[in-house]
Amino acid sequence: MRALFVGNLTIDVLDNRVRVGGSGFYGGVALSEYLGVETYVLSSASEKYGPLFRSVLSTYGIKLLEVKCHSVATFRISGRKMWILDSGCCIPKSSIDTSISVVRPDILLLTPVFKELAISDSLEVLSSFNGVKAVDLQGFVRERLDSRLACVWREQLKDVVMNSTVVHGNIKEFCIGADAADVMRWLRDYSKRCSALILASLDEKGCYAAYRGRVYLVPAPPTSAIDDVGAGDILTAVAAYYLAQGVTPLEAACRGVAAASLKVENPYSAWFDRESIDTVSKSLLHLIKEIV
Length: 292
Prior knowledge:
alpha/beta, 10 helices, four-stranded mixed beta sheet, single chain
């Protein structure tokens, strides 16, 4: 099985430490290192950081497809607070088309971090791809407000959802109404109109999983959180992988939550394996509650 992530890798600054981040890294490691998927990442890369990206990804068996750029997306992270220092470069549709043609992925993951993918281009790519299509909303809804990040919903994202297999965003990234009730109505409405599994992360509480007009709470297992950076990326990638394996949407959501929770608890050792994902996800299946 082959997976292609399309979205920029990042340089993350945490307490004077610098490390590689982005969905292509966290989701890529989850698929390549722990689930044995042949994994590719299409990202812009600068002359300064391209060698670092290649070195880090190759450690986990991930192949980097580069779009040359003068800079890279750079964020400063403190807990759950994030500031953008550099936005990096856009990824042209021609590069996406070429990468899909060369890689021929079974799973395509559009995972922008900050506006590097045009929504119109993304819609064209999604509508023409026949495999499992995963989308992370974060880079489509982020706007820069000085160095802070704000959330702006765009109407075209409804079409992105309609053309996807699985869509993920933190609950705060579904910035489509005045309160949580508006988000719940939207999740029910749009999951009724399409076949996508829509996942809204609730941080340490798990996630809402909306499918075919019904919304479920998938709780996270009890964990001792050590480092939750990248948890949403892992949730998305692992859920997409299991959907490609033919499991039901709710089972895929449970396995994504299980994998993300295991990484949060074991960030500096082996994150998880198939057996631990299966064990945790089976326990979660019995705890799912429909939100009515």
